[in-house]
Amino acid sequence: ANGIRVFDPAYLNTAAISSKITFIDGDKGFLMHRGYPIEQLAEKSDFLETAYLLIYGELPSKSQSEIWKFEVMHHTEIADDLAKVIGSMRYDSHPMSANPALQGRNLYIHDKSIMNKNIIRIIGKSATVAAASMRVRMNRPFIAPRSDMGFAENMLYMMDATSDSENYKPDARLAKALETLFILHADHEMNCSTAAMTHVGSSLVDPYSAVSAAAAALYGPLHGGANEAVIRMIEKIGKVENIPTFISAVKAKKELLFGFGHRVYRNTDPRSKIIREVAETVFTACGHEPLIEVATALKDAALADPWFVEKKLYPNVDYWSGLIYRSLGFPLDFFPVLFAVPRVAGWLAHWKQAIEASNPKIWRPRQVYVGPQVRDYVPIGDRE
Ligand code: SDX
Asked: Keyword set for this entry (predicted)?
């Protein structure tokens, strides 16, 4: 499709592992999941359907979809003891740092017979754990999840419901916007956090602990934490007239242009374009986002500068998403959590693919040793 060469045998013997889940053509800025271009999924699918596609390989039939969504949305409750762990978090602890600790509570050894049940539980509870840590930050009581709502709608409900929660319904435009963002963040081939999930999972530890490792990897500002770092960067720049000074600092390697660049995309990240369109919907619903002028001027300045063009630095998935989350009223340090919740689907898809491989192998990368040659021990009295 679109002249994209999906399988190049020459590439296979250089790639560490093969996969049927996601394909990225970095030169063409093309991304697809199980053969479906991301643009079509973002427009026509929803997060739980995309999660099913990633994990089980095909779009679900009507009955499969109903069963899948019923199962996930009826596994959103978290146990009292887990709620107590979340409730005991300091109000100002970074929500991402709490996540690994919370997941690690279930120290099972991986049991293949309950793989699908665990997948349903982890996806279902990911939004609830996230919403509960948000409620701790707001110093407000937890709101129980609603199984009669959509996945993203329920997350907005659990975070924002007021005391008369049974009458509260999130704005449909915002629920749809968050659903689209979740689709766009669901998977992205073998990125840092997915590699962590698959690496840790290869020791046959339980999937909850592997998700903790992946969440910890995602938290970094070079990865999923970039959506938070972008806003801090734009707030620090403050005004459009400060952009040239900032650009010079980036070129002098004194600053990093967060939200730009990508290990694989040598052209723009297709998700970034879609997110920019979603942002307009959210700004219409929530009101003007004051940082959009600086963000737009900064993007334009970078794209017009040969230094960035030569290094093939374009906006990535994180450049605009933070502005949306800010507009939706989430606290800044909660943005990586909004990346982690949908990415759980991709982590589980790659983990399941690896575990189901005929003979799952533990990941044990080799290294090229460049240290000192063999030598004899020197007693301390003989050392300089
Ligand atoms: C995500 O892998 C994935 O798929 C990740 C992700 C996903 O969905 O899972 O897409 C999500 O993590 C997106 C990236 C979010 N991170 C950021 O926005 C942080 C800013 N970006 C950079 O840190 C960087 O671009 C990375 C980490 C994203 C990529 O790092 P690479 O592959 O090491 O960058 P590179 O080799 O392409 O860099 C080429 C040059 C280098 O300079 P020189 O050695 O040539 O002098 O460009 C420089 C880099 O130092 N460079 C940047 C830069 N990104 C690269 N300089 C300034 N600002 C940047 N953003």
From this structure: Membrane, Transferase, Transmembrane, Transmembrane helix, Tricarboxylic acid cycle
First to last CA, the chain: 67
CA neighbor of 195 nearest in space, from 171, 218, 177: 218
Q: How far is the CA of 235 from the centre of ligand 1 (A)?
A: 21
CA dist., res. 193 & res. 346, Å (int): 10
Digit-coded pLDDT (tens) for 344-382: 999 999 999 999 987 788 999 899 999 999 999 999 999
Q: How far apart are CA 180 and CA 187, in angstroms?
A: 13
Which string of DSSP letters, residue by residue, matches 251-317? HTTSS--TTB--SS-SS--HHHHHHHHHHHHHHHHH---TTHHHHHHHHHHHHT-HHHHHTT--B-T
What 3-state DSSP class applies to 31? strand
Residue 374, CB half-sphere, CA atoms under 13 Å: how many?
0
Residue pLDDT, tens place only, 151-165: 999 999 998 876 566
Among 231, 158, 152, 212, which Cα is nearest to 185's?
A: 152
Neighbours of 266 (CB within 10 A): 15
* Amino acid, single-letter form, for residue 49: E
Q: Which two tokens stand for residue 156?
A: 């907005």
Q: Which of 160, 206, 318, 333 is catalytic?
A: 318
Give how far Cα 308 sits from Cα of 35, 233, 278, 358, Å.
31, 17, 25, 44
Q: What is the ipTM of this complex?
A: 0.97
Give 329 Cα–ligand 1 centroid separation in angstroms.
28
Task: For tokens 């407000």, name the residue.
Answer: 140
Please give all residues whose beta carbon lies within 6 A of any atom in ligand 1, as ranges.
Answer: 188, 191, 222-224, 226, 250, 256-263, 311, 313, 316-318
Give the separation between CA 256 and CA 173, rounded to whole angstroms. 33
Helix H segments across 115-225? 115-138, 151-160, 172-185, 192-201, 207-218
- CA atoms of 297 and 231, how far apart (whole Å): 14
Query: Which residue is it, tokens 């983990």?
Result: 351
CA dist., res. 269 & res. 264, Å (int)? 9
What sign has the CA pseudo-torsion 169, 172, 178, 180? positive
In contact, 302 and 319? CB cutoff 8 Å: no
Mean pLDDT along residues 110-130: 90
